[in-house]
């Protein structure tokens, strides 16, 4: 079956990337999950940088995420701050050391080497196919998309700024390039057909 072959290819690519990730993080005394937490926090917006959002995005328990956050906080790769409106919520942000670590370790060298050997058109085509596959899997699993702000149904362009239609708050230009926990995808004909 063609679908099963696609699954096997994705699974094999994932195994190779995880192996490379384990090797890189072991050299600095971290686990891949720590890198995944940092990578997520580097990509998410200010509405999505909480313990719960990290757990949801990575599909991990809150306990596992809390332990990982404690390790990263002790190593001074991230810091916590209390939410201005709700004192029960903590926001997580990367420190300068955390940002440097992400820059040093991502993307994986093995992936960069492989990507450099295929054409730009092939990379774009594979990327689009994988994006569509991810969207379908998220829809079937009824999981959140965590998509880019600017691709969200709630994203609005006002006269002099960008705005989130859900929170009704202005967005910085940098916000529009980040992923959001509350992302609502705009309709995609490949994913949304019944």
UniProtKB/TrEMBL annotation:
Domain of life: Bacteria
Subcellular location: Cytoplasm
SMART domains: HTH_MARR
GO cellular component, one term: cytoplasm
Sample GO molecular function, one term: DNA-binding transcription factor activity
Any Pfam family: MarR_2
UniProt main location, coarse: cytoplasm
One BP annotation, GO: response to stress
Protein name: MarR family transcriptional regulator
Organism: Methylomonas koyamae
């Amino acid at each position: 079956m063609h679908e099963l072959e696609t699954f096997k290819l994705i699974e094999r690519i994932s195994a190779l990337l995880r192996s490379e990730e384990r090797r890189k993080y072991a050299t600095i005394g971290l686990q891949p999950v720590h890198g995944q937490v940092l990578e997520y926090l580097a990509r998410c917006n200010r509405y999505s940088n909480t313990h719960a959002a990290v757990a949801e995005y990575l599909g991990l328990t809150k306990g596992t995420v809390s332990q990982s956050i404690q390790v990263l906080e002790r190593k001074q790769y991230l810091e916590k701050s209390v939410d201005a409106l709700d004192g029960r919520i903590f926001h997580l942000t990367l420190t300068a050391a955390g940002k440097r670590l992400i820059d040093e370790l991502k993307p994986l060298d093995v992936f960069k080497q492989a990507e450099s050997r295929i054409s730009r058109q092939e990379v774009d085509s594979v990327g689009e196919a994988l994006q569509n596959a991810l969207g379908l899997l998220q829809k079937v699993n009824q999981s959140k998309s965590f998509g880019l702000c600017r691709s969200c149904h709630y994203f609005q362009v006002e006269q002099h700024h960008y705005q989130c239609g859900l929170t009704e708050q202005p967005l910085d230009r940098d916000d529009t390039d980040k992923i959001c926990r509350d992302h609502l995808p705009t309709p995609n004909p490949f994913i949304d057909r019944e």
